[in-house]
């Protein structure tokens, strides 16, 4: 008998887009029976935390994996210095600016595996949806190996075909039902939904179980199915919660390997989400014009490009300037790409007098944030609200309906400190339950207000983690390290 204690490992399951509130409902309605047993019989609890602003995956996941999410202002943004749209997913360009990020940071998954994450953060990173573009010739094709192993495993293949067929049928009938009831569905996301449900989820699950059998010390595996379904059908659609059943069974399969893996490693499992979602109202409904079109009207001599949207150019003449607008759900960054560095309020006022006020006054816009001393300011149609601490009483009153005002103000000041944030940061209006969304989605996030700011961390009580004061996903990094390095 060996006198060596078995080595310990950590598995983190990233369940994209599920708020603490929706998790509670899913447990109540029986959509996550295995997670329920973890809570009832194994001493787990679903801790609420605040992900910070922007409530998007690149921001939260960078925080969780590296403990650092500075200069990640959105899901997609304009990098003035590189003259580049930074975007994740298929066609990812993050690798072109990646050398400016995470300097000197040790990823949570060092020496382990990061499966389907947005960032390379492990020794053996594996296939994932946003991963395709990141193969460089000097790196082994880890993704290819996972796909080959997956296709050569008859048991997995059987489950995939069986589940895939059902999932396709379910999503297609849900889509048709929504069509017939004239409910809004975001078509692009329905396709993404099918792809994620049928292909990616199964590959990720397969890679996760394989990594456990190989005994890798830390494994981070991301599941995006729920987020995609919620974008397509909305977080409050009962069918969206049903998707969680497959994730629940993935958690069950991984849990069965906590002790019973081939490598003999003793794993602990953490399940977490990165942000939530809220129901949306599209920005363009009122008069059919996008934010980019509105800004092009305010700046008729400028070329305006919307990222996920249209492009507008002045007739005949050479444009006087170039505006790049990036949308992430209910958040829009507006950049003057021909001006180096980020414009502050006074530079903005002298170059574009009254523009910020005009944008703040547009129907569907809730707030516009500008850079200024003492953390900057928010502008609405009712005036200007300084973000500086201590918080002015009118700012407290403005922020109250989104979240605890002091907390939110600090989160906004941080976003406003990023050089990569827009010269104008535009938040869609939020009425207490729905947010105005700049992208065509039924459920959205990226902005402030409601569930989108409130994800969860499912952890064992005995680890003593306290998330009550977590106001940025990057605070989870140290907590997960403490679980990883437990005795
Ligand atoms: Zn999303």
Report what the structure shows.
- The protein has 487 residues and is α/β, with parallel strands linked by helices.
- The chain contains 15 helices and 19 strands.
- The protein has helices spanning 20-28, 33-41, 57-66, 142-152, 154-180, 187-213, 225-233, 238-242, 244-260, 291-298, 345-351, 355-360, 393-399, 405-417, 475-484; strands at 8-15, 44-48, 77-79, 84-86, 113-115, 218-223, 266-272, 278-282, 302-307, 311-312, 321-328, 331-336, 365-370, 377-380, 383-386, 424-428, 434-437, 443-444, 456-460.
- It has an eight-stranded mixed sheet with strand order 10-9-11-12-16-13-14-15, sandwiched between helices.
- β14 and β15 (383-386) form a beta hairpin.
- The chain starts with 7 loop residues before the first strand and ends with a helix.
- It binds zinc ion.
In short:
With 487 residues, this protein is α/β, with parallel strands linked by helices.
Distance between the termini: 21 Å
Q: Taking all residues together, what is the mean pLDDT?
A: 88
The largest pleated sheet is described as: 8 strands, mixed
User: What portion of residues belong to β-strands?
Assistant: 15-25%
CATH superfamily of the largest domain: Alkaline Phosphatase, subunit A
Query: What is the radius of gyration computed over CA atoms, rounded to a whole number of angstroms?
Result: 23 Å
Number of domains: 2
Number of helices: 15
**Distinct small molecules:** zinc ion
Which overall shape is indicated by the principal axes computed on the Cα atoms?
globular
> Pairing-aware structural class of the strands and helices?
alpha/beta
Unreliable parts: 128-141
Oligomeric state of the chains?
single chain
The number of strands is 19
CATH class of the largest domain: Alpha Beta
């Amino acid at each position: 008998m060996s006198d060596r204690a078995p080595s310990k490992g950590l598995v983190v399951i990233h369940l994209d887009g599920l708020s603490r509130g929706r998790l509670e409902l899913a447990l109540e309605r029986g959509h996550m029976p295995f997670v329920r047993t973890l809570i009832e019989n194994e001493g787990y609890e679903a801790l609420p935390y605040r992900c910070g602003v922007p409530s998007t995956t690149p921001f939260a996941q960078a925080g969780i994996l590296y403990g650092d999410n500075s200069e990640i202002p959105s899901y997609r943004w304009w990098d003035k210095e590189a003259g580049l749209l930074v975007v994740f997913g298929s066609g990812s360009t993050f690798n072109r600016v990646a050398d400016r990020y995470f300097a000197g940071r040790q990823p949570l998954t060092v020496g382990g595996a990061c499966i389907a994450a947005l960032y390379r953060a492990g020794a053996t990173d594996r296939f994932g949806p946003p991963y395709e573009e990141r193969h460089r010739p000097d790196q082994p094709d880890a993704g290819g190996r996972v796909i080959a192993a997956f296709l050569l495993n008859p048991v997995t293949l059987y489950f995939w075909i069986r589940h895939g067929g059902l999932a396709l049928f379910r999503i297609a009938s849900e889509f048709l039902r929504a069509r017939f009831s004239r409910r809004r569905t975001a078509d692009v996301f329905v396709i993404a939904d099918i792809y994620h449900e049928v292909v990616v989820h199964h590959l990720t699950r397969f890679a996760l179980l394989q990594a456990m059998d190989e005994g890798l010390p830390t494994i981070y595996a991301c599941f995006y199915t729920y987020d995609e379904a919620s974008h397509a059908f909305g977080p409050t659609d009962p069918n969206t919660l049903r998707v969680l059943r497959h994730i629940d069974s993935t958690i069950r399969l991984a849990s069965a390997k906590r002790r019973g893996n081939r490598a003999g490693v003793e794993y602990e499992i953490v399940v977490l989400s990165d942000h939530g979602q809220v129901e949306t109202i599209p920005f363009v409904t009122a008069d059919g014009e996008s934010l980019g079109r509105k800004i092009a009207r305010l700046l008729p001599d400028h070329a305006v490009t919307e990222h996920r949207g249209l492009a507008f150019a002045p007739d005949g003449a050479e444009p006087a300037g170039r505006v790049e607008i990036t949308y992430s759900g209910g958040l829009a960054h507006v950049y003057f790409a021909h001006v180096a560095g980020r414009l502050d309020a006074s530079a903005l006022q002298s170059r574009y007098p009254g523009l910020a006020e005009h944008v703040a006054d547009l129907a569907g816009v809730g707030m516009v944030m500008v850079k200024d001393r003492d953390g900057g300011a928010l502008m609405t149609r009712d005036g200007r609200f300084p973000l500086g601490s201590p918080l002015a009483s009118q700012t407290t009153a403005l922020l109250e309906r989104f979240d605890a005002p002091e907390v939110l103000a600090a989160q906004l000041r941080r976003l406003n400190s990023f050089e990569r944030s827009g010269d104008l940061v535009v938040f869609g209006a939020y009425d207490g339950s729905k947010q105005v969304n700049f992208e065509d989605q039924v459920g959205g996030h990226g902005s402030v207000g409601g569930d989108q700011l409130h994800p969860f961390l499912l952890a064992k009580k005995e680890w003593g983690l306290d998330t009550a004061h977590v106001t940025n996903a990057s605070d989870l990094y140290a907590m997960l390290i403490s679980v990883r390095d437990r005795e």
